[in-house]
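To whoever is on call:

I kicked off a structure prediction for a single chain this morning and the downstream step that reads the tokens threw a length-mismatch warning. I double-checked the sequence; it's 183 residues and nothing unusual in it as far as I can see. Pasting both halves so you can look.
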Amino acid sequence: MTSQIRVDSIVPTTGVPTGGGGGIIQVVSVAKTDPESLTSTTTETLIPDMEATINLHSVSNKVLVMVTLWATTGASFAAQYAVLRRGSDNICRGDAAGSRNRATINFGGPTTYDNDQGNYGPGCISVTHLDSPAATGATTYGLYHADADGATNALYINRSVGDIDSNIYNRLVSSITLMEVSG
């Protein structure tokens, strides 16, 4: 005999902590296993296969969004960045300050492109964000990339810049995982 517990809400005996949530109600995860070579422009564009949809049960529930992205840029000081979106709404961005980009993650600079990382393997970038969508039903989250300076630099996902067929080069997996947290 198989037993199941079916719930729409899990709340600790002491109540839900301020700014937090209760128990996990469901988990949705999407893995991107294929390598990708993208051209970033000033238009924020979805990174293929870096999008997941969760069907929320209550407006008081939250979504724990976890993104792991293996990426490197095709230029040493590209102004590339990515933003996390819920549908068409931008979430999890840095504060506005002058003409600076409001981003979730940044790809540019020598930390993601140097002789070792750029040629032999991309760097891992991760984001964890607790979102309060105040909605029920299907809710979609995605990671979008752009190049702020309009230079149309290359962005490599799950692969190195060189991507040569050799055991010193890697192919990796990126993912987006959504957890519905009871409110």
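Update from on-call: the warning came from a stale cache, not from the record. Cleared it. Sanity check on the structure: The helical segments are 117-120.
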